[in-house]
């Protein structure tokens, strides 16, 4: 049975985007890119909401896959393209090969089926999608960048308390921290 991991990069004040809708974190540090590549090597599939999918797809399938990009970023692009991707959207009409389009109304049944049929990690991304599937998430991963953005889109806009247990914590030389939380 698969595990669903909700992973987003945040500011230390808990936002995935600043007030202007951008990540506001600057260029990724090399040690972060190495850690991200290590995680992506073990991912069985990406499960994205539409906005995160649109943020990820072009840069990692077209821009950074080109010659001249840093080697770690080219490796991430290769790993990203090789990993099955599911996008949950009611507005997209088509997606490229390697991506499966799922209507939002079918998200719960699709993710439940994938979790049952997959041996490995299903990486969930996108706060609205995560909230709609909150009870299916096994782990919460946070890479906190050493920046305070002072507002924007929160990591997980829940309206109720969710208690978790810290299972792993690492600090990277760049000042980025990784925290992995599981349900108690």
Describe the structure.
The chain has 184 residues and is α/β, with parallel strands linked by helices. The protein has helices at 30-41, 50-63, 71-82, 107-117, 127-132; strands spanning 3-11, 15-17, 43-49, 85-88, 99-102, 121-125, 139-145, 153-154, 165-171, 177-182. The chain is built from 5 helices and 10 strands, in the order ββαβααββαβαββββ. β9 and β10 (177-182) form a beta hairpin. Helices cover 30% and strands 29% of the residues. It has a single domain (3-156), classed as Dihydrofolate Reductase, subunit A, CATH 3.40.430.10. The two termini are 19 Å apart. Strands 5-4-3-6-1-7-10-9 form an 8-stranded mixed β-sheet, sandwiched between helices.
Summarize the structure.
This protein is of the alpha/beta class. The protein has helices spanning 30-41, 50-63, 71-82, 107-117, 127-132; strands spanning 3-11, 15-17, 43-49, 85-88, 99-102, 121-125, 139-145, 153-154, 165-171, 177-182. The chain has an eight-stranded mixed beta sheet with strand order 5-4-3-6-1-7-10-9, with helices on both faces.
SS-based structural class? Answer: alpha/beta
Shape: globular
Largest sheet: 8 strands, mixed
> Care to count the β-strands?
10
Question: Residue share in helices?
Answer: 25-40%
Range of strand content: 25-35%
CATH first level: Alpha Beta
Give me the number of helical elements: 5
Rg over CA atoms, rounded to whole Å, is: 16 Å
Contiguous low-pLDDT stretches (5 residues minimum) are none
Average pLDDT works out at 92
The total tally of domains equals 1
CATH fold node name: Dihydrofolate Reductase, subunit A
Q: Which architecture would the CATH scheme give at its second level?
A: 3-Layer(aba) Sandwich
Q: Which sequence of SSEs, written as H and E, runs from N to C?
A: EEHEHHEEHEHEEEE
Distance between the termini: 19 Å
The CATH superfamily is Dihydrofolate Reductase, subunit A
């Amino acid at each position: 049975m698969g595990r669903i991991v909700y992973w987003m990069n945040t500011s230390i004040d808990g936002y995935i985007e600043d007030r202007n809708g951008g990540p506001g974190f600057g260029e990724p540090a090399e040690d972060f890119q190495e850690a991200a590549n290590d995680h992506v090597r073990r991912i069985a599939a990406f499960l994205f909401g539409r906005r995160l999918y649109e943020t990820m797809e072009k840069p990692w399938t077209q821009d950074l896959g080109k010659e001249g990009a840093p080697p770690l970023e080219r490796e991430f692009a290769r790993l990203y393209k090789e990993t099955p991707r599911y996008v949950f959207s009611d507005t997209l009409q088509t997606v490229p090969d390697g991506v499966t389009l799922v209507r939002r109304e079918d998200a719960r049944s699709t993710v439940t089926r994938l979790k049952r049929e997959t041996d490995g990690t299903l990486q969930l991304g996108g706060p609205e999608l995560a909230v709609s599937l909150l009870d299916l998430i096994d782990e919460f991963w946070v890479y906190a960048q050493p920046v305070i953005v002072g507002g924007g889109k929160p990591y997980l806009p829940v309206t109720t308390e969710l208690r978790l247990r810290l299972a792993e914590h690492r600090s990277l030389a760049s000042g980025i921290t990784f925290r992995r939380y599981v349900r108690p």
